[in-house]
Amino acid sequence: MKVEISDVGSTRKEMKVVVPKQEVDSVTNDIYRDISQKVTIRGFRKGKAPRHIIKMYYSDYIQSELSKKLVQDKFEQAAKEQDLFVVSMPDISNEPPKENEDFTFTAQFDVKPEVKPGKYTGFSLQKPKAEVDEKNIQDVLVRLQETYASINDVTDPEYNVQEKDYAIVDVTSEERPNLNRFKMTVEAGVRSALPGLEQAVVGMKAGEEKKVTVDFPEDHFLEEMRGASAEVNLKVDSIKNRELPAIDDELAKKARPGVESIDELKDAIRKDLQERLEADARNHLERQIRDQLVKENPFDVPETMVRFQAAMMIRGMSERLSSQGFKMEDVYPDTESLKDETMASADNLVRTSLLLESIAKEQGIESTDEEVQQEIGKLAERYNMAPEMVRKGIEERGGLEEIEFGIVEKKVYTYIIDNSQVEEVGQIEEKSDDTSADRS
Q1: Which of 92, 110, 249, 418 holds its CA 20 to 30 A away from the CA of 322?
Q2: Does 125 share its domain with 272?
Q3: Are 282 and 306 members of one domain?
Q4: Three-class secondary structure of residue 117 per DSSP
Q5: pTM metric for this prediction
Q6: Does the residue 370 lie in any domain?
Q7: Same domain, 170 and 104
Q8: Is residue 248 part of a domain?
């Protein structure tokens, strides 16, 4: 088999494969043999029909099966031999294979980028002090309120969209029909797939329309709109809001098993908040590292990898909503718009993961069996299961590699922190971090 590889782009390859006629004939013989043993042709015993008779009845199937087997098997073999990490379905082009002739096909596909990290030490980082005060306790209670909030349809026609409401909107544009969106979810004051709409919907009522100028940044996920502006018509179809429960004994009982009152809940929060704040401080450091790593180490990433990660993040969001008793479509009726909106976070996550992986390789950072077992032990304790059963379940679903990489990631972050300048500062208002929140 002859294989030629050429670059189509920085992360896209073209492979030309020539399969010698001997291999073509071998696969062809296997197909004829398989047909002969499985089908009955009138006038012949099973397995005894001549080759030309089988071809007369099954020529289309033979051609299809021969092409499929040659392309699929030989592509996988060639990719493995060339040590290519393929991250997309290949686009195949070929002429129909013929018996006793060489078979040639070409495949174009995306590959995992080879990342060579440049700057990943010497960063200036800020670490917030982990000091527990009443505000910290109140912040936790507010987050619990949001966790147990109910999402309701707004029926009052005079209701104005408030920040953090979900506005279901239609967006149309005569000059830019590619921006048309129907039943797109905008989280008021927080985020929108089209920049600026999250602020534009604040104060609007259901059924209200207005003209809005959308200014697209240079790094927007819609490549054709980067740096451009467009006027769109914005119409609010419906509004959903989050109804927060009272901070009382009932919330305390829901929030933590074994707790009977809000005072008990506050005591429990106070007891473990020190550990949480340490974890938050670490997360803040890691967030700064992610931002600086991506800024200092630009490289191309295949869109297929980003779209796959975006889909994984949306699935994680769906699972979390489901665990709270909500359906994904209730909050985000237009899942395609949500997928586009998630692309920026997905792109950041893919880049960060590739950079951390390359740094680990360069520094020889690995996980150990003991560290993996410790992580499994933590999971076993959390779910009140035997560690052996937890490990068996993880191995069956192929999740051991994920645990190993999680350990390596933490070690890489620690390496970067140890080789950077870290300043301890007061409490920092944390921004939402879709990259980490939707990792699962």
Answers
A1: 249
A2: yes
A3: yes
A4: coil
A5: 0.64
A6: yes
A7: no
A8: no
**Residues 424 and 341 placed together within one structural domain of the fold:** yes
Identity (one letter) of the amino acid at 355?
Answer: L
Per-residue three-class SS string for 128-190: ECCCCCHHHHHHHHHHHHHHCCEEEECCCCCCCCCCCCEEEEEEECCCCHHHCEEEEEEECCC
Say whether both 161 and 49 belong to one domain: no
Integer angstrom CA distances of residue 343 from 77, 152, 439: 32, 27, 13
The position carrying tokens 């099973």 is: 46
Classify residue 321: in a domain, yes or no.
yes
The letter for the amino acid at 222 is L
CATH number at residue 215: 3.10.50.40
The verdict on 122 and 160 lying in the same domain is no
Of 154, 169, 183, which Cα lies nearest the Cα of 214?
169
Three-state DSSP at 104 gives: strand
The continuous run of DSSP H or E covering 134 comes out as helix 134-147
Residue 421, SS3 per DSSP:
strand
Q: What is the pLDDT along the chain (440 residues), one digit of tens a residue?
A: 899 999 999 999 999 999 999 999 999 988 888 888 888 887 787 777 888 888 888 888 888 889 889 999 999 999 999 999 999 999 999 988 888 899 999 999 999 999 999 999 999 999 998 888 888 889 889 989 888 888 899 999 999 999 989 999 999 998 899 999 999 999 999 889 899 999 999 999 999 999 999 999 988 888 888 899 999 999 999 999 988 899 999 999 989 888 999 999 998 998 888 888 889 899 999 999 999 999 999 999 999 999 999 988 988 888 888 887 778 887 787 777 787 789 989 999 999 999 999 999 999 999 999 999 999 999 998 888 999 999 999 988 888 999 999 999 999 999 999 999 999 988 665 544 444 334 43
Return the number of other C-beta atoms located less than 10 Å from residue 285's C-beta.
21
Give the total number of structural domains in the chain. 3
52 lies in which domain range?
A: 2-110
Specify if 376 maps to a domain: yes
